[in-house]
Amino acid sequence: MMAKSNVEIAKEYCTSMREKNLEKIAIYLHPDVEFLGPLSEVKGKEKYCEMLKGFMDFFKNYDVRVICGLEDQVMMAYDVEFFEPAITTRTAALLTIQDNLIQRIELFFDARPFEKK
Fold this sequence. Notes:
The protein has about 120 residues and is an alpha+beta fold. It has 3 helices and 6 strands.
């Protein structure tokens, strides 16, 4: 079987996210995956998947606009439509992939609509 490119891995990860398929997402994650985002930071597959469970309850649509890669990194731009607050957030994510596993996820978006007032 031929190894998948990092862009293919990112596309499959995004498809699994859109389908809210946590088991399939976990297949692509390194056991010590690092997640860095505007609202939280976690390390480890179990903690990241736990965080994703909550995220999946709040989004209505996950629409990938572009995915491109260079060496061990993949950059993605996508829109996330939420139930509450009823907004669409333009988002970018930088994935670091090694040995066909996502080792690091850096998420970029405007977090102001999600801040508690």
